[in-house]
Task: inverse folding
């Protein structure tokens, strides 16, 4: 028995004493759009200690917002969707690598802890969606729920905005995609099954690792790996097509799991899979670097250098067509493994196209007879 296990210490996860449990980000990084910076000073922390007060309650806030539209056109050629909608901004899942963190700065918040603790709620989303689908100029194109933040994050259990939107899609027979890493999607199995009858639904389930230890530090408030694989299985058994998102692949953290990940999602019924190589754009580079030095200090330099090797020596590459794929030897190895995994476990599988032909007949909310 080695010394790590003798003394009950996990050799992989060596968190610092200041680690904030249940969160991904470990600080609020400055918002580049704001002139003033808020910081928690040591003298304030000492005052709280002496007075027996909590300096940070680490609570999640739900903040209602009222956008004028809900469906967004996606211009990026790397994303693979034409339109998206997000019932929530910010995400309590707390995935440390999440590219959506930067969008929280547009609302005046930090891409760090604020992104996980200040969740913006769009209660009018179903009404706005219905107006979009009834618009005479609108032609059916797949709209993806969660193009930015997870539509089945914990807030959905309370507000049920995603469920209400799915009922709108069903009413107007409009194709919809879902991206999630939460088993809460199974709550809406009744609506999903109705959509599936007319080939109007596709679900993308993210599976980043098969290790619970890795999941807990990368994605602290997400569904367990066991539950995620079960979600793929249940959806597939109900004829709801599932694409697994093995993303992002982070060199030195989950890159060694590629073949096992592909086999696991295939065995549970996924019809296809996609992947990206991690990139730490904008404020995410600082958030991730701070996190890994506190969470995996012994591996931090190695992981950061390998990510940099995939992006020309930096943590981020903004070039379309390359930024999510990476370049160099490590990225090439990842792509080679993905090709092998696809050939080995998905050789006779294909993802079915969605039906865009019904919506025009149901544009008024009921079938047109003439």
Result:
């Amino acid at each position: 028995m080695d010394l790590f296990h003798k003394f009950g210490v996990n050799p992989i996860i060596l968190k610092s004493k200041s680690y904030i449990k249940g969160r991904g980000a470990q600080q609020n990084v400055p918002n580049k759009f704001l002139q003033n910076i808020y910081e928690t000073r040591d003298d304030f922390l000492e005052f709280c200690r002496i007075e027996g007060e909590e300096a940070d309650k680490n609570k999640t806030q739900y903040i209602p917002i009222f956008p004028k539209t809900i469906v967004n056109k996606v211009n990026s050629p790397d994303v693979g969707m034409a339109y998206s909608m997000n019932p929530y901004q910010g995400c309590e899942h707390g995935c440390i690598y999440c590219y959506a963190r930067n969008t929280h700065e547009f609302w005046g918040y930090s891409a760090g802890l604020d992104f996980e603790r200040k969740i913006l709620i769009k209660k009018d989303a179903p009404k706005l969606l219905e107006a979009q689908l009834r618009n005479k100029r609108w032609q059916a194109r797949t709209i993806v729920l969660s193009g930015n933040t997870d539509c089945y994050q914990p807030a959905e259990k309370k507000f049920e905005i995603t469920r209400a939107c799915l009922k709108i899609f069903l009413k107007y027979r409009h194709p919809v995609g879902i991206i999630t890493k939460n088993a809460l999607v199974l709550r809406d199995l009744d609506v999903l099954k109705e959509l599936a009858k007319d080939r109007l639904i596709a679900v993308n389930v993210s599976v980043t690792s098969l290790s619970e230890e890795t999941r807990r530090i990368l994605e602290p408030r997400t569904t367990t790996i066991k539950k995620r694989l079960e979600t793929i299985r249940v959806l597939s058994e109900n004829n709801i097509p599932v694409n697994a998102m093995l993303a992002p692949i982070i060199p030195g953290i989950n890159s060694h799991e590629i073949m096992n990940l592909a086999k696991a999602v295939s065995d549970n019924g996924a019809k296809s899979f996609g992947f990206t190589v991690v990139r730490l754009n904008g404020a995410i580079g600082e958030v991730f670097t701070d996190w890994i030095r506190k969470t995996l200090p012994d591996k931090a330099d190695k992981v950061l250098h390998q990510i940099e090797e995939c992006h020309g020596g930096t943590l981020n590459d903004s070039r379309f067509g390359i930024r999510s794929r990476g370049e160099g030897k490590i990225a090439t190895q990842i792509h080679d493994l993905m090709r092998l995994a696809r050939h080995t476990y998905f050789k006779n599988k294909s993802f079915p196209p969605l039906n865009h032909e019904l919506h025009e007949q149901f544009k008024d909310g009921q079938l047109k007879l003439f």
Summary: The domain at 62-347 is CATH 3.20.20.70 (TIM Barrel). The first strand starts at residue 61 and ends at 64. The beta strands are 61-64, 71-73, 83-85, 88-89, 118-121, 143-145, 176-180, 201-206, 242-249, 272-277. Residues 252 and 303 are 5 Å apart (CA to CA).
